[in-house]
Amino acid sequence: MAMKLSFCSIHFVSDQTLERRVFLSNHVIHIFTVSSFGGTATALQEAYNSEGTTTVLQKASKSEGTTTALQKAYNSEGTTTAIQKASISEGTITALLEEYNSEGTITSLQEADKNEGTITSLQEEYKSEGTTTALQEASKSEGTTTALQEASKSEGTTTVLQKAYNIEGTATALQKTYNSEGTTTALQKAYNSEGTTTALQKASIIEGTITALLEEYNSEGTITSLQEANKSEGTITSLQEEYKSEGTTTALQEASKSERTTIALREASKSEETTTALQEASKSEWTTTALQEANKSEGTITSLQEEYKSEGTTTALQEASKSEWTTTALQEASKSEGTTTSLQEASKSEGITTALQEASKSEGTTTALQEASKSEGTTTALQEASKSEGTTTALQEASKSEGTTTALQETSKSEGTTTSLQEASKSEGTTTAL
């Protein structure tokens, strides 16, 4: 487009100032220049009314450094550009802002380079495509930091990345989301002088699955945690594993709704001891099993509990073995038969204790046996009751270094008979009662 020169004027304002004015058709240019001993400053302003364009330029050069500012606007095209740059003895700063309205694009850049390091910030947005990107990076003598965020509206996706390098270690964070697919992924990883940490989480809505993983390596050992949930299958799995210089710990839990089964496993192995815990429940079979075992340098403890609801049976076993003594406990209950059995046995360096109790409801009989043997003497107690026969028998015997005591008592209700036997023998004498 040809422009006709309407007027031009040059004015010498002072010895250090020069101003020029140029007038065109709908076009005005102002130039202002200052030159001094300290440096140079230049200002330019240009306007195009017919095209809707404005340009502003300012530049300053001093002994300390340089500063540049540029701003440009296109109204008809919907474009705005801004540039700012500063270079001084300490460092460099650059700022860029660019906007396209017709295309729906915005770009922003900021960069700083100093003796300490570098900082870069970039933000870009596409409105027509529904995408936004943001990048930030910092590099210093201590380390580096990078952050990236990107969003796509048309695809429903968001990505976030953050990474940091420093003298201590490295950290990385990644998060990504798919709205249309209903999936979210988050990853975080850190390296430091002490060790490593990794965290991963993923969720899929249309598949109904959630997975979370946490893994950590440090100077002491390793920790791993995994959790997964699948809604369509109705299954939840949780795993935790830990390795340390002292020992190992493992925990597993799984639940399946379709099968109505739950399994929990926990295991700990250390140089001093070992612990194992297992719990399993099956609702379709109405069965529950729990196992716990501990093995230490001093001894062993085992506990087992199992329950069958459909059969009405419960079994509990507990066993403890130590260098000093041993304890065994067994309890079993059968509802259909109405029978309960309980066994307890303790063996110590001082003596032995045994207790047995059995109850049968259908027969109405209860049997209890207790026996104690110590270095001082022996004690035996037997009690039996039969409800259908109405008979009770009790036997008690005690043998000590001082003497012997025997007691027998029997009662029969149907026959109306009672028998009592008592005998005592001591160093002083003997007593017998019948």
TrEMBL record:
Q: Where is this region: Disordered?
A: 128-155, 269-288, 331-434
| UniProt feature, compositional bias: Polar residues | 274-288
Protein name, entry field: Uncharacterized protein
Organism equals Biomphalaria pfeifferi (Bloodfluke planorb)
